[in-house]
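User: I'm preparing a small set of examples for a lab meeting where we compare how different chains pack in three dimensions. I only have the primary sequence for this one, and I'd like the structure in token form so I can line it up with the others. Please keep the answer compact; I'll paste it straight into my notes.
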Amino acid sequence: MRNIALVIGYDGTGYYGFQTQPGGNTVQDHLEAAIRLLTGETVKLHGSGRTDAGVHARAQVAHFHTESTIPVERWSIALNTRLPNDIVVYEAREMPLDFHARRSAKLKTYRYVIQNSKFPDLFYTRTRFHDHRKLDTAAMKEALTYIKGTHDFTSFCTVRCDKDSRVRTIYDADLLVLHDPLPGDELARSIHFEITGNGFLYNMVRIMAGTLIQIGQGKRRPEDMKRILEAKNRRLAGPTAEAHGLTLWRVEYD
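Assistant: Understood. Below is the structure token output for the 254-residue chain.
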């Protein structure tokens, strides 16, 4: 028995999320089908975490057990020839049998990208949320200082969150602004909200992004982020930001 870990990227636009759903059409379904075509085995793929419908991944990690003797260096190319064009296996590694993509993960980083320009950038409409209003990035950056550290993030968790503990540790949260002029809009830019933590609650990053956008619009003050966090009340936070702006950026292990 072997334990194979895959590093996977995907455009989540056309899928119902990463994890298998009753209705099918998930990234996991396509990966398991590709493995079955390659090896003849029916395997269970375990991802480092779920991504919702429409959410993307730059480096999702998943593992599965197999009896196949295919050399590990051949897995990526062999699977990619059997996958849709919007799912790519970048790397395969043989891991110890006790490795688990989710339970062994130490840190995860997500990135939410806002296209801040008069019009959407045609080439990023599937991976960036467009906001034409001028956003105050200094205020947004200040707001992020309040979420670093270990806190109860109930205010930034959907009411459907089923976790017993909503305490998580955020090691880093930052804003990167890239100026990228478009025809007729020399001030066009993209705003990248990147956050790293030991775990995330359901819709946590998207609710944070929705709150940050309101701060950037001047509807809230930066210090409101602290007040919302301490209240432990989802109704005080901003809306859940659109799924297509979010990407699972990387997963880190020992």
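A couple of notes for your slides: The domain at 107-252 is CATH 3.30.70.660 (Alpha-Beta Plaits). The beta strands are 2-10, 46-47, 56-66, 87-95, 107-116, 129-131, 149-152, 167-179, 189-197, 246-252.

User: Perfect, thanks.
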